Amino acid sequence: MSLRFTIIIVHRNGINRLKSVLDSVVKASEAFDEIVIVDNASTDNSISRISKIYPNIQIIRNKFNTGYGYAANQGMNFGHGKYFLICNNDIVLPQNILSAFDDIFTKDSKAGIISGQEVRPNGDLVTTSGKKISLLTEFDGIYKFNFYKDPNTLSEVDILRGACLGISRKMFEHIGGYDEDFFFYFEDLEWCIRAQKNDWKIFLNPHIQVSHIGGASSSELNQESRIEFYRSRIIFWKKVFPKYIVVLLHIWNTPKLFLDLFFYAIVCFFTLGRNTRLNKKLIDRSYVLLWLFLGKPKSWGLPKENK
């Protein structure tokens, strides 16, 4: 019997999150689906604990943190499904997600990437799709005026958030998987852009709601995650824009960081540092600017080791 979906869970630490997503995956899957956990060198014993709860789940154990895209690619290269479902370890799947995605893939042979509507655990909607990336969307402080609402019906979109993506194996074999130059952040946007350039379609199904905590894998490393975000953002610019646009983005966004730092410093001074959210923003900008000033040292950012 041929396999329908290979469900890939990219994991690093967090037994409760992992068990929650696995419980939902098991309920959503059938005998003709397979489940693969790709563990990025967890340090909390979560894999040995989960293997006792689900002894038949296939696990790829990495010796160090390889990054999200690399781990997802491992799962796709390992899996045997006609389609893939790539999952963060902090989501919960609805029970009908695989049949709904299968139906879209079957009806449109050029469907390459599919997502459901992301929601917070309390039910609040999370913006899951977006318009084409452009110079203006990357100008901090300007792109927010271009507010984008997710469609209300099954629709073709330009980009998707990558917390839970259905992937056509044919697309994967045609254009490749995630770009492994990205350790964390922006790999999903680059993949969507590459898919569209190669005539693959991207769909959002708002009737399939995927609960997503968001930021769970990096919440304890806030400053490190902001550095990683900016590192990946710079890589992203270089990959999708011509050089003159990359220069313009640096000319705008680097001074914007200084302006933000000055603004939050003033506000924190007058609020006597009592606003935790503003304090956090001040610290974030300080770390990123120091990282840029020191020449973007590779050792800064989320914990990793060289492959």
Which CATH first-tier class of the largest domain would you pick?
Alpha Beta
What is the strand tally?
A: 11
- Pick out the low-confidence regions: none
Oligomerization status of the protein chains? single chain
Biggest sheet statistics: 9 strands, mixed
> Which class of secondary structure composition applies to the elements?
alpha/beta
Order of helices and strands: EHEHEHEEHEEEEEHHEHHH
Identify the overall geometry.
globular
Strand content: 15-25%
Cα-based radius of gyration, to the nearest Å: 20 Å
Notes on the protein architecture:
The chain is built from 9 helices and 11 strands. Strands 1, 2, 3, 4, 5, 6, 8, 10 and 11 form a 9-stranded mixed β-sheet that branches. The protein has a two-stranded antiparallel ribbon with strand order 7-9. It has helices at residues 15-28, 46-53, 68-78, 97-107, 169-175, 187-197, 222-240, 243-270, 276-293, and strands at residues 5-11, 34-40, 58-62, 83-87, 91-92, 111-119, 129-130, 155-156, 159-160, 164-168, 201-212. It has 307 residues and is an alpha/beta fold. The protein folds into 2 domains: 5-212, Spore Coat Polysaccharide Biosynthesis Protein SpsA, Chain A (Alpha-Beta Complex), CATH 3.90.550.10; 222-293, no CATH class. Helices cover 41% and strands 19% of the residues. The model has no long low-confidence stretch (mean pLDDT 92).
